[in-house]
Design brief:
241 residues; mainly alpha; 2 domains; two-stranded antiparallel ribbon; 2% strand; globular
Amino acid sequence: MTSKRDGQDANRKALFGEIARGAEVAFRNAEELFSEASLLGKHRALSRSLFLHQISLEECGKIELLTAWATGLLMGEEIDPRKLTKALVNHKAKNHANAYMLDVSDEEQAARKNRDWKAAIGLFEERQKAFHEESNTAKNASLYVDFNGERFAAPSDRITKDMVSEIVKRNREYLGLMYPKVRLLSKWNSDIDKTAEKLRAFKALALKFREEMPNDPEKAMTRMLEEMLETATRGEATKSG
């Protein structure tokens, strides 16, 4: 007879498998969008090229979100598929996820160096907001005729070759960053139980050092990684022995 817990585990594994598959599908779509956007760019259809590159980037953001949800699922967190659905169609959420791949600003770097974590988080959140607004504004400008109160502007008036060159570079970079995550989810899906055990141990360590060093997350992370390395080294020594 199947217990309630067995049923929950089966549902969890099924949801994880679908999330891993979703990441693969999203990545494939992002690649196709990149190719189609590049063709438009070659034919000087700059506005529509930028639009498709932006949608490709949002698919990359979707993969970032899926990776976070999948990790939480294996750590034992409850995942509501309805919330997942809502998050994946939220342009702001996907742009905010993509902001994590941006280079760290000089201001945020200085705040980190001074261990002013509150300021560092605040600066990053401001950058997330600005990145979303910039990305969304450019996407809308690539499709619609706008009126600024004095004159109308077509997409061809607003989207420049430099803007397209910049988004091509970013899109190529983000596709490169997302591919290993898609592969990782696929690997985790091949041995969910073992992966879940490791991730829950990781979560326990993270909570332990966060409680011990609440005002120094950088040191807490360093200590956690050191302990994980020591554990892994002991495990390899035991196997070889």
